[in-house]
Amino acid sequence: MEKADKKLFDKFFSARYYENAEYNFTNLFMWRNMLNLLWAVEDDVLFVVTSSQNMLGLWQPFGAEEKMQDAITKILSWAKENCGEKKFAFVVVEKNFVEELEKYPRAKFNISAERDSFDYVYSAQDLINLSGRKFHGKKNHLNSFRKDFPTAEYLPITSEIIPKCREELNRWYEIHKKENPDDPFICYEQAAIHEIFDNFDDFKLKGGAILLGGKVVAFTFGEKLNSDTAVIHVEKADPEIRGAYTAINQNFVAAEWSEMTYINREEDMGLEGLRQAKESYHPVKMIEKYFVTVEEQNI
Fold it and tell me: What is the pTM of this model?
């Protein structure tokens, strides 16, 4: 997968209304090597494969609704020929494709929801205004940040700001590497974000940063996911500055996404601290994702 493939993927992802944050080229590009992603287009349907040592995973196919039943047949036939000793599954599946699998006549499937992978979706106006009792704590954090750091400045991410964001990114990861020295994901994510910064304009992303004394103390970036939703890919802030996370979240949505109805802030990966943080912003809906294996088939 190369960045030149963005136009093709964008065409498929925008042709129908998808809510899953992973159905987005930036996300695919960031994690393509870790997931061993391969892809192909046949009969105007996009197929995406991910593999590990023990498993071959097929994402749900992307294309017109009337092509989905035939696409399932193609996937099952391909998997039968190519899995070898590996297990096969459909992965990161949205509910609409679950319905396609349930009506497929030539196979039966085991379908399980993956709660750790559910995306958290919020009202954009809730994140901007932080109104009402349920956001009282968040509003206090924001007001405290503004009081404690009156010279803090929010700026959109530009080529001039990116080097300062890289400095904060590296500092953030140095802290977390000390806390989790054996976690390979940390180094991978750090490199993936640097690669996105290398191609920031090409990916047509929007980003924001908070500067204090000329230094970036928080930054974030995202993009439009579908007709009414923006997705936030990355958000980092100095953990020693109280309210920095709340401030970058509120400022970014207010500055760039006020016309959107929803903000998708992706999954919690089953991490308890991250789950608590995401739940504390009171999502208005969760985007369910499913893991599907084949119980029996006649292919």
Answer: 0.92
